Amino acid sequence: MKFIWKNIVCRFGIPREIISDNSRQFQGRRIQEWCQGLHIRQRFTTVAHPQANGQVEVTNRILVQGIKRRLERVGGNWAEELTSVLWAYRTTPKGSTGESPFSLVYGTEAIIPAELGIPSHRVMNFLKNVMKIS
């Protein structure tokens, strides 16, 4: 519950539902009561049949391929490469929607480091806001 609160609710708000496997940490009385208290619907995939949640399986396959490619090129630890692979995944438009996951969550495309040197309305607003915070 602490992970869900910190990494999902505090970042994105209360979800309408949580889809998970049938493992104990998602089926206990405490998590069920917590979800009920926040009006979160719990849905479970079929035991020993991860294909039931095909969207997650496809995403996991893409992420694993990305990590393997990075490790082949630069070596290192997969956990260190994960954030770069996630960034690439989250900022790439998907064929089904034509939008990136980042833009769907935040309502704008991410400003990538290479863009900072190119004057544009988005970059100027970004830099102006950074200066206010500093």
Automatic annotation (TrEMBL):
Organism, scientific name: Sesamum latifolium
GO annotation, biological process: DNA integration
Designated name of the protein: Integrase catalytic domain-containing protein
InterPro entries per UniProt: Integrase_cat-core, RNaseH-like_sf, RNaseH_sf
PROSITE patterns: INTEGRASE
Annotated GO MF terms: nucleic acid binding
Domain Integrase catalytic residue range list: 1-109
